[in-house]
From TrEMBL:
Keywords, ordered alphabetically: Aminotransferase, Pyridoxal phosphate, Transferase
GO molecular function list: pyridoxal phosphate binding; transaminase activity
CDD domains linked to this entry: AHBA_syn
Family: Belongs to the DegT/DnrJ/EryC1 family.
Record organism: Plantimonas leprariae
A GO BP entry: polysaccharide biosynthetic process
Protein name: DegT/DnrJ/EryC1/StrS aminotransferase family protein
Length: 380
């Protein structure tokens, strides 16, 4: 009987960092500094260094990390924030929570990231209708791969818009050696446990080089507090990161570069072995992805049968995402570029993610690769 394959196996990583994290936990238990303890500050400093950014604001989740900069910029009703439709709900949710309008943009069929022509079409729609003010673009680093920030920056500058990177899945990804913050006004990430850099609960962070923005976000993170903690100068929220979670991320950050390399190696092997049978997410030259998911396209209505066949062979697969946001009940009334997002629709019908984590050994990966080939033969 073969060992069952995990979709994401956090066990080997936990074994690697367990002792160091437990030592930190012990110290936190002993001192009782559960909220904004010294580990939070240590983590923020380490993340600034890793990300090459001047300011890091740790927070309670990736969703908080998106909400904080939007709230700090004063995004409000009447503002348009351009968001890809093929993403997790949180990207658009934070915009709608502030009463602003997410305007859905299509994505590219090979990289699955924001399509600049569709962004331009959405901007033209908004300008023509004249009801909304273009305020912000939010590229999403889908499955760990950075969007085309250089081009997005150019378009955003031409329209006086902010760029907020939703790097919830892609913190650590680079384009020609640069992370998203090289171009974006703010970068948000999530430390949800299954993310490439995850904690053991909820957590997130925002990075920026803008000290004024950082100061407002720090205030918003703690109920809009002013210089005096009980003098609230703006409406804020509770978005602090637990000290215990900060302790986890500090230790995992030490091994993160090594893990990104492992993910790149595993993804390269998958792509070399699978490209004839299915269509993997394409990674352009000069880019490093964190491969939060390894996702392929199975066309012609065969995806569900393929997944059933994979399951029969003991290989778990997951669909991210089965319905683009512009088709979902909570979001379908918001505008979509040109009224139609064909690539997002197509991807939702075709994508399927395979097991991926930094500790996937070659023998297990070979089993998965063989299962993909056998399943594709079975459904053809
Ligand atoms: C693209 C994207 N944005 C935002 C989030 C929100 O992160 P969190 O779950 O930490 O709030 C996620 C996490 O699932 C995500 O994948």
């Amino acid at each position: 009987m073969q060992q069952p394959i995990a979709f994401i196996d956090l066990g080997p990583q936990r074994d690697r960092v367990r002792e160091r994290i437990e030592a930190r936990f012990k110290r936190i238990f002993d001192t009782g500094a559960f909220i904004m303890g010294p580990d939070v500050e240590e983590l923020e400093t380490a993340l600034c260094e890793f990300g090459g950014m001047r300011e890091t604001i740790s927070c309670g989740s990736g969703t908080d990390a998106l909400l904080l900069p939007l709230a700090a910029w004063g995004i409000r009703p009447g503002d348009a924030v351009f968001v890809p439709s093929f993403t997790f709900a949180a990207s658009a949710e934070v915009v709608a929570m502030l009463g602003a309008t997410p305007v859905f943009v299509d994505c590219l069929p090979h990289t699955f990231n924001l399509d600049l022509d569709s962004l331009q079409a959405a901007l033209d729609d908004v300008r023509r209708e004249g009801k909304l003010r273009p305020a912000c673009v939010m590229p999403v680093d889908l499955f760990g791969q950075a969007a085309d920030y250089e081009s997005v920056r150019r378009i955003a500058d031409a329209h006086g818009m902010k760029v907020l990177s939703d790097a919830a899945q892609g913190f650590g990804a680079t384009t020609q050696g640069h992370m998203a913050g090289h171009w974006a006004d703010a970068v948000a990430t999530s430390f949800y446990p299954a993310k490439p850099l995850g904690c053991y609960g909820d957590g997130g962070m925002v990075q920026t080089n803008d000290a004024d923005l950082a100061a407002v976000m720090r205030s918003l993170r703690v109920h809009g507090s002013g210089a005096d903690r009980y003098d609230n100068v703006r409406i804020g929220m509770n978005a602090r990161m637990d000290t215990l979670q900060a302790a986890v991320v500090i230790e995992k950050l030490q091994i993160f570069p090594d893990e990104i390399e492992a993910r790149m190696r595993i993804a390269r092997r998958y792509t070399a072995a699978l490209s004839g049978a299915v269509t993997p997410q394409a990674l352009p030259n000069g880019m490093v992805s964190t491969w939060a998911q390894y996702t392929v396209r199975v066309p012609d209505g065969r995806r569900d049968a393929f997944m059933t066949e994979m399951k029969r062979q003991g290989v778990p697969t997951v669909i991210y995402y089965g319905k683009p946001l512009h088709r979902q009940s909570a979001y379908q009334h918001f505008p979509a570029a040109g009224g139609d997002l064909p690539v997002s629709d197509e991807l939702s019908r075709e994508v399927v993610s395979l097991p991926m984590h930094a500790y996937l050994d070659e023998a297990t990966q070979n089993r998965i690769i063989e299962a993909v080939h056998a399943s594709m033969r079975a459904v053809s």
